[in-house]
Design brief:
- The complex is a heterodimer of chains A (273) and B (271).
- Chain A has 273 residues and is of the alpha/beta class.
- Chain A is built from ten helices and ten strands.
- Chain B is mainly alpha-helical and 271 residues long.
- In chain B, helix 8 (180-217) runs parallel beside helix 9 and helix 9 (222-232) packs antiparallel against helix 10 (236-264).
- Classes of the chains: A alpha/beta (273), B mainly alpha (271).
- The A-B interface holds A 67, 69, 86-87, 89, 91-93, 95, 97, 99, 101-104, 112-113, 116-117, 136-137, 139-140, 143-149, 151-152, 164, 182, 185, 189, 192 and B 1-2, 4-5, 8-10, 168-169, 171-178, 182, 186-187, 190-191, 193, 266-269.
- The structure holds adenosine-5'-diphosphate (ADP) and magnesium ion.
């Protein structure tokens, strides 16, 4: 909610200069219902920001605004300085429901983003197998989603997003629909993949452990309407692996986020009022 | 990294194949037995009832052979097939895009939905006098009747299918910057194909009814004509033979419709 013109901002604000995603004064109403309000957030070009907050607090809606799938009611989102008004190039989403097209094979699902980006058939034939390999789905190119477990479907969803080599990845509780074990396997695989190709990532999750494990910063959303309640810097070294979860610092951070999430929602608001 | 993957996947398919085949062959046995029983009852009843009303199965089959040999049945069959085929094909070619447009274009939907459900609910036979008045006798009005019988189930099922596309599929496509024409290609049409096949199956059944109705009430021709003239001659065996042919045609065409439906709904997985 700054009043200075944006382009001047972009030149003079050092934080903005390095940030890939800029969210300023973002609010969303559905008729009377205000889902979130006055959200300011910057995400760096190789930074993972995790969003935690109770279900229904507007995390999915916020991601939709960042991707230009729905228009915000107030404020704006910029990616590389350009205001987002429709899904921008170079932004890929991984959905909680995997978002695979059930009538397409794994190969064609993974190829979908490339096809939409106008990549030639030959280049697709070359690049898709590499990404199928990357997520460990070799041999399942011709399977249909119904033939795959949830974990494998999300691997395909991940490959489809990665295949377009996005500069921004939006993850909407990507492992939320998976069983605990599969979820853990995929968390560490995603970390490994991210280390080889760091991107700007906004990662929505229900799980506090996951938020701390994946994020460089954890943003706690809270209140009605939701606002940014607190941002916690996660000073855990990368690459992060299974060993990270046994680090005492990991547990400290987890407790810290836990307490923020669990404290009575209206504490801070009521003091201010 | 993928210690979990090899154990999963489409492996169960071959294991399931054998019981399915056994079930299928036992179903065939039941099917055959029921056909035989039907023929036997027909035969018995035919000997007990006045031959003006009912002819035994064996006599019907013998008369069927004669009709085939004389060329009467093949000629009638060919004439009917032309009416049926032309009407059905036009109905499908019109019904598919009409249903899709209805689902995707708001003002069409709002303007036409009630008309179409109304026409679908209406017994088409009632329209035949109007068609006769406007188009007279000949091939075209008969094709129009078959078309009218067949087109509405296609429109309605395609429309209902295309309007039931889960919002998440559309959102995924939009997140990859799909425009409306890409949506049609990658989401709307593939999602709707199984519904279209159901519509076509329903259309086949109704086109058959439309065909006989047209051949009765417009310029008599084809199988309808054969039923009419043989019944006027009290050649009950020939009437039954022709009806038997229509029945067999119906069964075969519907089996084809079912096969189409199953083939194009494969991605839905076993339900
Ligand atoms: N298209 C919509 N129309 C009306 N209300 C909506 C719409 N989308 C989301 N909401 C409402 O906005 C709130 C936040 O939803 P959502 O962003 O899905 O939350 P989260 O992802 O945090 O669980 C919910 O109360 C939901 O009912
Ligand atoms: Mg959500």
């Amino acid at each position: 909610m700054r009043s200075t013109p944006r382009d001047i901002n972009a030149v003079h604000d050092p934080a903005a200069a390095t940030s890939r995603i800029q969210i300023r004064g973002l609010g969303k109403y559905f008729d009377e219902l205000c889902v979130f309000d006055d959200i300011d957030l910057d995400v760096g070009s190789a930074e993972v920001v995790t969003l935690v907050g109770p279900s229904g607090c507007g995390k999915t809606t916020l991601l939709r605004c960042i991707d230009g799938l729905v228009a915000p009611s107030t404020g704006e989102v910029r990616i590389d300085g350009a205001p987002v008004v429709e899904p921008p190039e170079g932004v890929a989403v991984v959905f909680q429901h995997f978002g695979l097209f059930p009538w397409k094979t794994v190969f064609r699902n993974v190829a979908y983003g490339l096809r939409m980006a106008g990549v030639s058939r030959r280049a697709i034939a070359e690049r898709v197998p590499a990404f199928i390999e990357l997520v460990g789905l070799r041999g399942f190119e011709n399977s249909y989603p119904y033939q795959l477990s949830g974990g494998m479907q999300q691997r395909a969803g991940l490959a489809r997003a990665l295949a377009v080599e996005p500069k921004v990845l939006l993850m909407d509780e990507p492992f939320g629909a998976l069983d605990a074990q599969t979820r853990e396997v995929l968390q560490f695989e995603l970390l490994r993949i991210w280390d080889t190709r760091p991107t700007s990532m906004v990662f929505v999750t229900h799980s506090i452990d996951e938020a701390v494990l994946m994020g460089d910063r954890v943003v706690v959303l809270k209140g009605r309407p939701s606002t940014v309640h607190q941002v916690i810097d996660v000073d855990l070294a990368r690459p992060r692996t299974r060993a990270t979860t046994t680090d005492p610092r990991f547990h400290e951070l987890r407790e810290q986020v836990w307490n923020l999430v669990m404290s009575t929602p209206d504490d801070h608001n009521s003091v201010e009022r | 990294m993928t210690t979990t993957t090899p154990t999963l996947g489409p492996a169960p398919a071959p294991a399931a194949a054998r019981p399915v085949r056994r079930r299928r062959s036992s179903a065939l046995l039941t099917y055959g037995a029921s056909l035989l029983a039907g023929a036997a009852i027909w035969e018995l009843a035919g000997h007990l009832i006045d031959p003006v009303f009912l002819v035994p199965f064996t006599d019907t089959v013998r008369r069927l052979g004669e009709l085939v040999a004389s060329g009467e049945l093949p000629t009638a069959l060919l004439a009917s097939a032309q009416v049926f085929g032309a009407g059905l094909i036009i109905a499908v070619l019109v019904g598919l895009p009409a249903g899709l447009l209805l689902a995707r274009v708001r003002f069409l939907r709002v303007g036409l939905e009630d008309w179409i459900t109304g026409l679908y609910a209406m017994p088409m036979v009632a329209l035949i006098p109007f068609i006769l008045a406007i188009f007279g006798f000949g091939f075209t009005p008969k094709v129009i009747v078959v078309f009218l019988f067949a087109v509405f189930p296609v429109i309605i099922t395609v429309y209902e299918g295309a309007s039931s596309i889960p919002a998440r599929h559309i959102e995924v496509a939009r997140s990859f910057r799909a425009r409306e024409r890409h949506l049609w290609r990658d989401v709307v049409i593939p999602y709707t194909i199984p519904f279209a096949m159901t519509g076509i199956r329903l259309a086949i059944a109704r086109a058959l009814v439309g065909m006989i109705a047209a051949e009765f009430f417009l310029a008599v021709s084809g199988l309808g004509e054969l039923i009419l003239i043989t019944s006027r001659r009290f050649d009950t065996a020939a009437v039954f033979a022709t009806i038997l042919v229509v029945c067999i045609l119906g069964v075969l065409l519907l089996a084809l419709g079912h096969a189409l439906e199953r083939r194009f709904a494969a991605w839905r997985g076993p339900s």
